[in-house]
Structures are given as C-alpha cells and as structure tokens.
Specification:
Elements lengths: L25 H12 L1
Length: about 40
C-alpha cells in the first residue's frame, strides 16, 4: 500500500486550471484553510 502526502498548496498540475505540477498555488492553499476552519 502507498500513502501519498504532499504539502498543502502544492499544485497537482494544470488539469483543473492550476499552475504546473509542484508549483505553489496560493488560492488552493487558502481554500483548504478556509474549509478546515468552517
């Protein structure tokens, strides 16, 4: 079995309008934080 863990805010790629894979995506990171706080 594998467990994939990555830093929150790292892009998985441009498939859903994000930056290239591995690039920092501030909007995504903020969305994760907002959903975690609600």
């Amino acid at each position: 079995a594998y467990l994939w863990i990555k830093r929150p805010g790292d892009s998985d790629g441009t498939c859903r309008g994000g930056p290239p894979a591995g690039d920092w995506w501030p909007e995504y990171a903020l969305g994760l934080a907002r959903r975690a706080a609600s």
